Amino acid sequence: MEGSKTISTVIKLADVVIGVQANSYYAGEARKDNTELLEAGARIQASDDEDDLIKDYIKTGVTKLTNVLTKILGETTCVWGTDDVTFTTKTVANFMDSQKDALLLAMKDYLVDTCLRDWLALMKPGEEKLFENKLTELSAEIRVLASHRKKPVRS
Fold first, then answer.
1. What does 63-112 look like in DSSP terms, one character per residue?
2. Model confidence over 21-43: pLDDT tens digits?
3. Domains of the chain, residue spans
């Protein structure tokens, strides 16, 4: 799928950490309504204390996302900054630039859900299936976004 166009996307690590914390908070709160799940609900809520572990999960997620993008969109590399990660993809020349924002959101969601899957696998095994399914859906969404093409213009 390589071509003559290069696209770059930047994801801020803080956005991913905030996404993991927010989603794990709401997942925990949903379980606290049931007194039998009260302890489990509290355990799955990620806080600032777990930032180092979440950042390790982000590294795993970046590797997986890079592989997904390479398979679907074109050869992709990533460069780590202090506060962000930049993905650079060589893709087909007629890739629609209008899809970049939607692609960026799907990529960020992919990283958040990868971290949540790994977090839940550690904190409450068996609960990670929800996020495993979401990752499958996000891969399909990235495939759709990557398939949009500009129509050639006749000279």
1. HHHHHHHHHHTS-EEEEE-SSEEEEEEEE-TTB-GGGHHHHHHHHHHHHH
2. 888 887 777 666 666 655 665 66
3. 5-13+49-147
